[in-house]
Request: fold
Amino acid sequence: MATQTKISRRMSQSAVVQAIATYGPISRASVSKLTGLSKQTISEIVGNLESDGWVRTVGQTEGHVGRRAVVYEIAPDAATVASVDLGGTKIRVALCDLTGRVLAERVEPTEQSGGRQLVDQVARMVRATADDPQCPSGELKIAVVGVPGVPDSRTGAVLMAPNIAGLDQIDLAGTLNERLGIDILVENDVNLAALGEHWMDHRSDQDDLVFVSVGTGIGAGIVVGGILLRGASGAAGEIGFLPFGADPIAKESHKIGALERVTATDAIIGEYRMLTGKTCSVPAIFEAANNGDKAAEQTLDNVACQIARASASIVAVLDPSLIVMGGSIGARDELMHRIRRFAAQCYPREIEIQPSKLGPHAALAGGVSIALSHLHISLFAEGQKGAEINVPPPALDTFKASMS
Reply:
């Protein structure tokens, strides 16, 4: 009986927190109507949450006949979460309050020696961001780290991450936990970007979306029914290994992937070099295409055609309502109109393809959404199996404006 009472209390508390997080500022009477719990139960739970500092009063209801009621919201500064976007060339760290508002951000070039030196860098950046004296905030409780590879849940290593050395040789989450003393979650960065786009721009008709990132590599994050699809080994969305573009049986394709060999940064540089004999950066090739350089235009046509084929393959299997293009290359206008044009030629119905609204901050936003949900569940549902507490996102413009 005691166990059942404890489970019931957890369920009630998580329902109350979800109502306050979603609809706050909100009165206890309104929480009672939303949850179906008695006013006495609501008063007890809200009183405990307020005394512990997790919710706060923010005024009273107005415009009603009779006595005005006190309204509550989640206390934003009761704790903080960190989101880390660990890229091959750059690391971004964002510190956020319990509403998802960005309090501080730090950006540094990635430590190229990789391995434990890279872990030390991430730990130092997270701690420095959390301890910034110009940003007084609550205690840091959890950090979510986005990585360009597949986290192995058994060993903690990050597999299939050729652009960062040594991640397959260490327990990334475990080592960061030792350095920082907080909960650490590690997730594929493109998966986080997909969650970030879904969280920040959620519409009821877009619970099925695929985020395709094109930059140093190519990958996809898949959201089905509002839930991230990871697959049996966590490698769902590794579309760089789709067996077309380059020879999928070639030895090089086993390391990088046949599609990635013809779509990402090195492919664009190599294609243009083959056509002109010149070695140029990707931005320079895009600029040349805008200036009418035929070789640059052909290079972008070839790359866009392969991305369109991949998009059509995704739609044929998953039938998502939307494909979001992101990454340092994927969302550029010069590619977007080409991808749409080729996609229309290789699939019998229109494929909705849109550029990322969050740009380089998509993975950070996804990390924040996971961190907040995980923290709320651990605090207020006490790890109850199957519990869900979804924290509404801050306004898109507010989130982007707070980033550097």
Notes: The two ends are 53 Å apart (CA to CA).
